[in-house]
Task: structure prediction
Amino acid sequence: MPELVRAALDRDIGLQGIQLKTATGLEEGYDVLHRGRARQQSRLARRLGFKAKATDVGDALERLLAGYESARTDGESLREWNQPTADTELEALLAGAAA
Result:
């Protein structure tokens, strides 16, 4: 498996390149994946129901990480926060909607 694909599939948050259909044709974009894990207890990341244009994915990830920073408890890692958080809440953070 190519290294970049594997890296996206075994991380807390990963990106997989896609072609998005838009009104003007196809555009480069990303599927957001989450809850992957390497080493012990390994598992492949799952897709969230969120896709972003390549030009918008940085802002979406900033919103997600800001949500993590504001909601986490002291010392809670991204993985610890991500695991029990509902997919709909993560998708809302990525989209910029109130969760």
